[in-house]
């Protein structure tokens, strides 16, 4: 059987690594100062910018198929969800989730009555607006919530966010190399022909390696049970999240999510970079909540 994925593109890999290093220096510098008072608002600003870029890509993909989701309404709801996670602290919830969703519904549906020029596509357009806002608002919002967690170790939230990214990125990198050299059995040919079962198992191996590295360095309170559980949990959920975003791209006939938007050199659009993290972040928080008692 022929390989389902090509050999490693060294030129593209150089671009990918270079842009990742530039981003990594900035991002990990922020995590280093995670216990400073200005760090949570700064992280919120980064998540707000990411949600704006992601919602724009979602709107552009939908418009390629003739739909007309509202970028403004989607971004406002996304920012409302981010604000909810930022302001919530213990029993204090000054901007409750029900209020954010209620206001978001009015903005999306009432706004379309006055500003949507393609009301014949109202149902799918408004549904896509909801989808994009909830997808980004919850996925990035849980990152914000994790970043602000406090535990027995200093900069607990920063450590956990670093673990989230390292575990996910180690998995992505392992999947790329293992799939490129050994991929023979297609994982989901109707969704992403280049993905293979070999790459998927390589992904899980990378996730476990990343989790073990985090236990040895920054998340020293983790047990080996945590390493295995989080490696497999985040790896599985992250890969499913990747496939979900691939179905959206295939349904709109685009290769990268940027579709005329801002492209990250060697990585495609922003949605292509956060698709695994958007699902992995809520999964990580669920594990921290039910297993370790974080709120």
From TrEMBL:
Pathway: Phospholipid metabolism; CDP-diacylglycerol biosynthesis; CDP-diacylglycerol from sn-glycerol 3-phosphate: step 3/3; Lipid metabolism. Pfam families: CTP_transf_1. It is found in: Cell membrane. The chain crosses the membrane at residues 12-32, 38-55, 67-89, 95-115, 127-148, 160-182. Keywords: Cell membrane, Lipid biosynthesis, Lipid metabolism, Membrane, Nucleotidyltransferase, Phospholipid biosynthesis, Phospholipid metabolism, Transferase, Transmembrane, Transmembrane helix. It catalyses: a 1,2-diacyl-sn-glycero-3-phosphate + CTP + H(+) = a CDP-1,2-diacyl-sn-glycerol + diphosphate. This is Phosphatidate cytidylyltransferase. GO terms for molecular function: nucleotidyltransferase activity. Its EC number is 2.7.7.41. It is a multi-pass membrane protein. Belongs to the CDS family.
